[in-house]
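Problem statement: downstream parser choked on a complex file, so we are re-checking the raw output for the adenosine-5'-diphosphate run. The parser issue turned out to be on our end (a line-ending mismatch), but while we're here, posting the original submission so the record is complete.
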Amino acid sequence: MDVIRACLAAILWNYVNAFVMSSSEEPYFNKAGFRDCMEQPLLKDGSYNIIHTKMKLESNHIHEVQCAPDHFSGVNTIIAQSSSATVRRGIHLDSETAVVFKEFKSAYAMASARFVRIEECALSAIHHPHIVKHYCTFFNSASEKIVLVLEDIGDWSLFEAINEYPGDEYLFMDLLTQMSVTLQFLHSFGIVHRDIKPENIMLRSSNSFVLIDFGLAVELHLEDSTFCELPGGTLIYLAPELLDVKWKSKFFTPAVDWYSLGVVLYTQMTGQNLIPYDATEENYKKIVDMIRTHSFAMKNIENLNIRNLLRGLVRKDPSSRSSFQQIQQWIAENKHNYKSS
Ligand SMILES: Nc1ncnc2c1ncn2[C@@H]1O[C@H](COP(=O)(O)OP(=O)(O)O)[C@@H](O)[C@H]1O
Ligand SMILES: [Mg+2]
């Protein structure tokens, strides 16, 4: 865990700044604010309609400043790039807060404004120690792109931690404890993340995980806990019910997140993917068949308690998959064996 600890020092400044920006670490979900945000028209004058145009500063007293590119410096340092966004690091000049800019590729933002909207609305309504903070959103007229301004969590994601410490049972326990509570928090407000994977779980310090990337999140109809739309997410972490070809529409429950968490925890314990094929086009059918029909024995996990827990999380039938309550019971029974380091 020494390298992870070392990363604590490197990101301490970011952490201190992020802490200054938040009044308390008590979790809350501003449901009214979320609903209001989601109900605003998606586009205005043909462009994405930004809702959070101001940045809240919480020092001695709370005040709001306009969220615009000239309030920030260092917008050029690229830290990640994907098909949907470019992520850069910068500083908010007035408050000296380290921030990250998630700039959506314009075509993506226009064609898929809904994905930008859910990320903006959900993150701005949530205040949770294990969920990334959203400060504000602006339109960068130089690049003509939409930019979400987020808390800078640092350089470590679970992806790097797994490469460095595959099989670390203390890391496993911290990850399970924190992410199960975080997912349950989201689910209790009807939000399903749908893209749980190592790259979307970052480390704020040696044992504090932070969930990012709400672009694929959805709000369920709480009455029946199901939602119907095309599946999204990263194939090797997708729950089998999302791939059921017999279903014309895809109905799912929050259990899809528990499945993905099970796959992530398996990778953390073994350093290997649950599905042993590269996610290429040629392997697509093999991967889908395996997710839908293969019974994962997980014999390479020697610890039987952990093996049983993970097998419960990746059950094909969502109604018999391990629930939050079962995970909590498992944690209560096992926490003395795996204390956080
Ligand atoms: N708040 C943040 N702090 C530090 N790094 C971040 C932050 N948000 C994103 N990143 C980095 O950028 C990558 C891509 O961001 P993400 O929100 O997951 O976008 P995408 O939808 O393109 O996957 C992440 O995997 C992470 O490495
Ligand atoms: Mg991502």
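For whoever reads this later: The chain is about 35% helix and 20% strand.
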